[in-house]
Amino acid sequence: MPPTAKFKARKLTDLSPTEFENLVFDLLISRGMVNVVWRTPGPDGGRDIEAFTVQTDFSGAQSVSRWFIECKKYVGSLDWPTIYGKLAYADSMQAEYLLLCTTSKFTPAAISNVDLWNSSRRKLKIRLWPGQELEVQLKQHPDLRLKYGLSASLQTPGYSLVSLSLALSKSVASVYSEL
């Protein structure tokens, strides 16, 4: 296939459940999560992926937050009882965040109950990534879109490739100027 050839891009809903979990896994790493662990296949203890974020405050002190991530490749909307079941695991395991990612969307009742949960000053916070939010997140990572066939262009340089090229260019320029 010539380098300028185009192919039909896949949609999130075209991914298999395993591909979807892998995509979310890669996206979490690209967004800066650390110690990312895929918990499936098999009994996953209420989460598909477990990861951590590290925040540094103004004084330089760091705090670590534990995230449970659940990936749901659904055609229909994700409801509150499904979220609540995952919430019980995350709460009992003392996670600070539960992130639910889906290829579809969340029911209005699910969104209302999540808002109510988050405003009740509980330690565990729930975050929702419906399919449309995942699309927004993926626009910032063209390398992932290309990796999973979600981009129609074979010539889109990936973020990782561009970053690596810039770092290499800076290194070569530094050595050259030093010589």
Descriptive labels:
179 residues; alpha/beta; five-stranded mixed beta sheet; globular
Descriptive report:
Helix 2 (80-92) links the parallel strand 3 and strand 4. The termini are far apart. The protein has a five-stranded mixed beta sheet with strand order 1-2-3-4-5. The protein has helices at residues 17-30, 80-92, 108-119, 131-139, 142-147, 159-178, and strands at residues 34-38, 49-56, 62-72, 97-102, 125-129. By secondary structure, the chain is α/β, with parallel strands linked by helices.
Architecture blueprint of SSEs:
Blueprint: H1 17-30, E1 34-38, E2 49-56, E3 62-72, H2 80-92, E4 97-102, H3 108-119, E5 125-129, H4 131-139, H5 142-147, H6 159-178
Extract low-pLDDT stretches.
none
Radius of gyration: 19 Å
In helices, the fraction of residues equals: 40-55%
The overall average pLDDT, rounded, is 84
Count of strand segments? 5
Quaternary state of this entry equals single chain
Strand proportion: 15-25%
SSE-based structural type: alpha/beta
How would a textbook summarize the main sheet? 5 strands, mixed
> Between the first and last Cα atoms, what is the distance in angstroms?
43 Å
Summarize this structure briefly.
The chain has helices spanning 17-30, 80-92, 108-119, 131-139, 142-147, 159-178; strands at 34-38, 49-56, 62-72, 97-102, 125-129. It has 179 residues and is of the alpha/beta class. The chain has a five-stranded mixed β-sheet.
